[in-house]
């Protein structure tokens, strides 16, 4: 009896110790690990350039197609696409700035209208187009960037969309999620039925009238 | 005997399992965790701005002083200081570029000669100066940046140094560590005895003739 008690105490002490070590390990590494930005950037570079990003996009769009196949498409069925890092890629300029940001350089890049299409998004866009889904771009870009954005989309193969919605002067005070959900509400009021919403930021997918939510990966930045 | 064997097997199986879990946990989180760069940048920002960076510098220089106190300073005793993020801080421009890099912007920043001193380094520099240690700056910056660097150091309070060594045209093909250790060798040949070497990169401290190695933290970048 005494021996049994002693053995149990030993076991539970050991288990407690191991649980503690495990908890501390998990806590220390996943909650708030400080990493040299060179290391963090190189990991992100590897993710985008080694094929992992492409693989993830393929998987996400395959799942989205499986969901779309279950839906009966109507005349007013619409899909909402975000622009930056959803339809068009900013990876090149981000890498050129060593994954940093400079207002003027990014502004010039946007106005150049030379952003490449994200090919999996374009493929999914065309898949929806063939099904007769109405295609709408909804972006946090400003009205001054409308022409460059419109031209960039068309030149990259995003043709035949119904509308491109950008931020007007009075929309600038709104947060990204608030602006986008308000615009979706207006689209609903105009008769559209949104069946799917595609974006790389959670702010693209928050709020009502999104339909199927398709979240693309983005390890470069986060929009609030 | 049989029971004993069985008990041991159980224990070792459990230990093996726990070791495996622990190893996998450590491996998965610390070796290659992919983090959104916004998150990685915010952690680095917090490190630099919350006082943790200052705290670490204070601790490092206190330890360095304790080591210096054990040394008999001679007429030819010399200390080597790196410039960028050792004597002068690039944190401000790094933050302005959202922790990225643009050649022209960084070049303009260097040429502005307005980099602030890292106050703990300046304090340690003055401590060595009072002790009669010869003070030498050794930087990977180029010859075109010599004047701006010289002026910046003086204006920030780094006065009375013996020499400022930058990369000449023919040094440009050398890696940072190779260039710096070669220059240290030349200093030795000129009669200096290097008692301490201070830098934020391991390349500042690799090779011979370093004396005491003082490695400052740098989570912004790594120099190869």
TrEMBL record, chains A, B:
PROSITE patterns: PROKAR_LIPOPROTEIN (PS51257). Gene3D superfamilies: HAD superfamily/HAD-like. Keywords: Glycoprotein, Signal. The keyword Signal applies. PANTHER family: ACID PHOSPHATASE-LIKE PROTEIN. This is Class B acid phosphatase. It comes from Ignavibacterium album (strain DSM 19864 / JCM 16511 / NBRC 101810 / Mat9-16). The lineage of its organism: Bacteria, Pseudomonadati, Ignavibacteriota, Ignavibacteria, Ignavibacteriales.
């Amino acid at each position: 009896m005494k021996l049994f008690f002693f053995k149990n105490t030993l076991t539970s002490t050991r288990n407690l110790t191991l649980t503690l070590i495990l908890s501390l390990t998990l806590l220390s590494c996943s909650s708030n690990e400080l990493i040299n930005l060179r290391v963090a950037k190189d990991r992100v570079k590897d993710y985008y350039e080694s094929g992992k990003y492409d693989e993830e996009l393929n998987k996400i769009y395959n799942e989205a197609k499986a969901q779309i196949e279950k839906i009966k498409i109507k005349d007013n069925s619409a899909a909402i696409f975000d622009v930056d890092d959803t339809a068009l890629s900013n990876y090149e300029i981000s890498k050129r700035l060593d994954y940093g940001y400079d207002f003027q350089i990014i502004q010039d890049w946007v106005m150049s209208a030379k952003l490449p299409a994200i090919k999996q998004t374009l493929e999914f866009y065309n898949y929806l187009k063939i099904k007769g889904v109405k295609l709408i771009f909804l972006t946090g870009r400003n009205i001054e960037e409308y022409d460059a954005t419109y031209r960039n989309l068309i030149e990259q193969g995003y043709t035949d969309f119904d509308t491109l919605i950008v931020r007007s002067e009075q929309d600038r005070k709104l947060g990204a999620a608030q602006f986008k959900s308000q615009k979706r509400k207006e689209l609903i009021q105009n008769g559209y039925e949104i069946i799917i919403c595609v974006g790389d930021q959670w702010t693209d997918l928050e709020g009502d009238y999104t339909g199927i939510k398709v979240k693309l990966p983005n390890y470069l930045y986060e929009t609030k």
